[in-house]
Design goal:
There is one protein chain. The chain is mainly α. The protein has a single domain, classed as Tetracycline Repressor, domain 2. It is built from 9 helices and no strands. Helix 1 crosses helix 2 (about 30-40), helix 1 (about 5-25) crosses helix 4 and helix 4 packs across helix 6. It is elongated. It comes from Streptomyces pactum. Keywords: DNA-binding, Repressor, Transcription, Transcription regulation. This is TetR/AcrR family transcriptional regulator.
């Protein structure tokens, strides 16, 4: 009887290998040849799952973005709006090894997306959705009945996004997590000054 192959699982394995290689050596390290070697496939087998490197990059990009969204949605439902906001902000900051590694992958793919309009559109959509979610969380946490478009809410959402993206970029230079206390202090200040 022929062996049954779970093709979706194989695709996930290939994406995991691509992420691992990007973490270890940057985007250039994730060549088709290195992915095949690391995954233990025959040379032609990879093309059954992904026709080219761009397809692997797109799948890896989507995987990292999905993991970020899962992190924000993970855990027990938080009913306190302030705690829900804290949870979402902390989920996007590089506060542990996993999130520092994810930042490394996301930023490598982000750079690649500049030359790939399909990936750039995907990331712009992610940024738009993230800003909307942040604005909703901030408006609820402020408890003033403001809309998500209120100037104070929109300004705070933009600030959080800028700080988070900056922290993820900076974590590339401090992969040991040396800046984690600063990022935690930022979240504490954000929550303390939310009503200003």
């Amino acid at each position: 009887m022929p062996k049954v192959i779970d093709h979706d699982q194989r695709r996930r394995e290939i994406v995991a290998v691509a992420k691992k290689l990007i973490i270890q050596g940057g985007f250039e390290a994730a060549t088709m040849r290195s992915i095949v070697a690391e995954a233990g496939f025959a040379n032609g087998a990879l093309k059954r799952y992904f026709p080219n490197k761009d397809a692997i990059v797109a799948a890896t990009f989507q995987s990292v973005l999905a993991e970020m969204n899962e992190k924000m949605s993970a855990g027990d439902p938080v009913t306190d709006p302030r705690e829900a906001l804290r949870h979402d902000v902390e989920a996007t900051l590089p506060l542990d090894r996993y999130r520092i590694d994810s930042a490394r992958v996301l930023l490598a793919l982000w750079e690649h997306s500049v030359a790939n309009e399909e990936l750039a559109a995907l990331y712009r959509e992610h940024l738009h959705d993230w800003r909307r979610r942040l604005a909703e969380r901030i408006a609820a946490a402020r408890g003033k009945g403001e809309s998500v478009d209120a100037p104070a809410v929109a300004e705070r959402a933009g600030e959080v996004m800028s700080v988070t993206i900056g922290a993820n970029v900076t974590s590339l230079m401090f992969p040991d997590g040396a800046l984690i206390p600063e990022y935690r202090a930022y979240v504490d200040r954000l929550m303390r000054d939310l009503d200003d």
